[in-house]
Amino acid sequence: MRFLVSGAAGFIGSHLCDRLIADGHEVAGIDNLITGSRANLERLLGHPRFQFVEHDVTRPIGMDGHFDAVLHLASLASPRQYYEHPIETLESGSTGTRNMLEAGRRHNARFLLASTSECYGDPDVHPQVETYWGNVNPVGPRSCYDESKRYAEAITMAYHRVHGLRTTIARIFNTYGPRMALDDGRVVPAFIDHALKGKPLTVYGDGSQTRSFCYVQDLVDGLLCLTFSDERYPVNLGNPTEMTILEFARFICNAVNPGLPIEFEPLPQDDPKRRRPDIGKAKRVLGWEPKVPLEDGIRETISYFRSRR
Ligand code: UDP
Fold first, then answer.
1. Which residue of the set 83, 120, 132, 145 is catalytic?
2. Which of 35, 77, 164, 263 could link 200 by a cystine bridge, Cβ 3.0 to 4.6 Å?
3. 145 is annotated as an active-site residue
């Protein structure tokens, strides 16, 4: 099969392209390289079944040839990045999603939207289940990301309803692994980077907020199961093992540099207090659940960051 993947040079997109090529498919990857990097594609560039085009999804997608599936992952994804580029973030979720949906429609292809747990905002239902509509501040600093993904979900459903497109929507929870950018500000690279440098780990707030971390290979499995499913409504993909950020800081210290101090900094506005996916639907509909324990995934991630220093 032939796949069109936006965000191909990004953290999740590049792992997805690796998997598709390993499975024998053809892939055309596009990325504007605003946060993605060619280095993430170093194993694919030059491969006979892989093509890379530097392209911004907010411009119409005019790729040659037929596609069986269109996977839309292009987006800024880290809070630090979308605070810095709020307009680009809104554009890739809105115009970018529309352009990718049009590509899907032209080819009568399957379509996957990479959406997010941020659709639930600062949730008052826990764990988060797909039927929960969320608690998003529409004018706060995170709204550029949250609302663009909520719009992206809405227009994806509209293309399904109006054009009969075979759309799927993944609500992706916190994901980690090799190829995260060391400086993207998210908690996994930030803590590992500080620990490797022997700097104190900076916990925002009192560290009682929770997150649940999924290893990228597990996530890629889930995305592919979903792409080929007949489920049209959103499906949570994430690892339900929940921990506080303070527990996570201690975990990283123990793994890299025990005894390192932990410092506390102000909590960013609208930072979600609790986040854990209910993955009952993914288990039921896709037969999917994550397999990689945090200890193993973090070991791989640490060794990647060590090799990059
Ligand atoms: N966080 C932290 N220190 C950091 C980076 C993040 O304490 O250096 C916290 C952040 O406030 C949030 C959690 O870790 O509560 C996860 O943040 P991240 O930016 O990774 O993603 P989010 O889940 O908020 O989208």
1. 145
2. 263
3. yes
